[in-house]
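Weekly puzzle thread! Below is a chain. First person to post its structure in token form gets bragging rights.
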Amino acid sequence: MTPWLVVLLDLLGTFAFAISGATLGVRKRLDFFGVMVLAFAAATAGGIARDTLLGATPPIALADWRYLAVSAVAGVTVFFGYEQVERMRNPVQLFDAVGLSLFAVTGAAKALAFGLGGTGAVLLGMLSGIGGGIVRDVLVAEVPAVLHRELYAVAAGAGAACVVGGVALGFRPGPAMVAGAALCFVLRFLAIRRGWQLPVARKPGE
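Winning reply:
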């Protein structure tokens, strides 16, 4: 395992999720503190859940100042540069897809490094990916995207499975993580663009 690569991807995912959280916060007309809280919660919730379940305490997002700093930079950037961020097409979904991809693969890789089996690593990778988005949406009283949007948790699971499968086949963790992140992002991006989703529950008569 290459710890520096895991940390690098973790920080990139933190920044991406923080951007998505802060953007949603501005859309909901939260004040500066609210936007910063939403940025930090979206950026770190998945990683905190991952580390807590692995027994890697205190969670790195709380022990390493860089995670707070990255979240703060993202939050301030969005708060004062919201118009520029919104010029991108669907910035919340775009940065959410990036964060989802990176956290899914780092979660799976860290789980393997801590001796978790393949199935557990895939599930923990999925949890790492979707955790930040769930907390972000709940804080602004929205139904979490994972429960109703296009291939969200499925994409995270596919990325995590790519890491686990690649390592099991003898590939180095680094390339497996890059491939897994790319797979997750492409699946999520195409699902957004083309409306791919799992069957939706319907009431009788609908």
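Puzzle host: Confirmed. Bonus trivia for everyone else. The mean pLDDT is 88.
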